[in-house]
Amino acid sequence: MVTVSGRHRMRSSLRGAGAVAAATALVVVVAGSWYGYRQLAGPSCSGRIQLAVAAASEIAPAVKAAADQWVKDGAAVGDTCIAVNVTAAESVDVAAAVASKHGATLAGVGQASGTAVTPDIWVPDSSTWLVRLKSGGATAFAPATGTSIARSPVVVAMPEPVAARIGWPEKKLTWTDLLAQVNSSKALRAGIVEPTQDAAGLSGLLSLSAAASSTGAAGSPQAQEAMIGALRALATNRSSLRQDLLARFPRSSDPTAIANGLGAAALSEEDVIAYNGTKPPIPLAALYLEPSPMPLDYPFAVLPGIEPAKASAAKVLFDVLKTPSFRNRLAAQALRGPDGNGGDGFQAPRGAPSPANGDSSAPPTGQGGAADLDPSAIQKATTTWSVATQSGRMLCVIDVSGSMKQKVATANGATRAQVTVAAANQGLELFDDSWSIGLWTFSTNLNGSQDYREVVPIKPLSGNRNALRQGLASVKPSNGNTGLYDTMLAAYRKVQEDWEPGKVNSIVLFTDGKNDDDNGISQKELLTQLKKLRDPEQPIQVIIIGIGNDVSQAELEPITAITGGRPFVTADPTKIGEIFLQAIALRPPAPR
């Protein structure tokens, strides 16, 4: 059974006595489920199965009610009786537990808590979690279904007076319109729930990213500037908890309160309905922007590794959750059916399009769910967000050995050094002024008998950005070899020397070869020194990005294993820009 405390949604925040009551309720639910389980184990049952289901909190009551009715009616597969324990669980918490179990890495998602375990069946709020786990390295992670059982469109929530000023509900608005509002001189105060931890936030970020890309050619300075501006504007009012973000909307009709409150945020339709159900002084309008963002689709995922009898029982439970009666249960939770239609009693917000008239909430043509998602777009959005909105201290170390002169066929004849510098420049534009960054180059005998040279010292970007641009422009390959080990040890000592609390202190080293320095230390000596220097109280993350076919991952892994980092090796140097962002985004968040 997966048990988690709290929920990032406003209406189920657990505080004080409420937390005690919720904990007591959970005990009652578990006890009740166990009682029903034992009652089933009567003379007619030759076997017993208990399914553990973890579901997003807004859909959990509907799933539990349907499962309870199924059990009451005699849930069984053949002669085997079934009991079901449904627990409300944060999708990000279960994702962290699954990632830990399958060796995956999710940008912006902390480590799993010590008590979190994976369920038999998982109903997260979005298929994006399944896609992120797969693309994050969970190669053995293949849920049995992943088919949607409910839907909630992602909308832009605005206080009604703010929405009315830009034409709601009559005017049809686009994400490009919103981007212009966010980046204008009198910017709309937009916020977001951390998109690396929240599916609605991620959906909004993907739509806003697409709108930014449309402002110019992909990767153009105009598109990059629009994207960075939007990210930083959103980051100003970001929150890791959805109820905290909702609390920032104006709570008074006073014009000053409206002007100073949150003006827009990507949330689910269900969030808006639930918020307005509390009768706030200023209701929220739900804006269904075009193109339609990726909705929350609540996939029913039977996790790999469960026993065959449980898998059979899960298939029957899935059939129960496809019935008209379950759609009606969803309506009571302000959720739609998987086709975008609401059950009995469902009341869509004002301005919502009708499914019969091309409702933006309706599923796309094709298979739907995870099959329609672009893993690369999701990964790029999450890594870019992580880099652009978090602070750090980093020493960038670039290989300038002779082999870096080699031309890259897939980069219009640019050299490996030029491709590396271009990737570093692109990353530099994403870092805000709170970052501290320095630049070294290395080869052999680059500075007398020393293999490395400081180009720019580690300083805050607020006064160091131009120096770094000039330093990167000066990077030119030498005729030397690769003095990797001496350089790594010196870089580690340098970063440790002025270690800064409150930031992830890191080294990112680019190289296209193995250590080739007859006068330098050995790998054994390097590892011995790193073990001595390593201080758990002052961690330094080492990331090595290997370029080309001459790099040995086996040589790099022991170095990063000691320092808590990771090596990335690509045969195609044109991929290092993407890898650089992924590497920076892996900075470890706090455990969940």
Automatic annotation (TrEMBL):
Renumbered residue ranges of the record's region Disordered: 334-373
Xref: SUPFAM superfamilies: Periplasmic binding protein-like II, vWA-like
Pfam family, one: VWA
Domain of life of the source: Bacteria
Domain VWFA: 393-584
InterPro entries for this protein: VWF_A, vWFA_dom_sf
Name of the protein this chain belongs to: von Willebrand factor type A domain-containing protein
Lineage: Bacteria, Bacillati, Actinomycetota, Actinomycetes, Micromonosporales
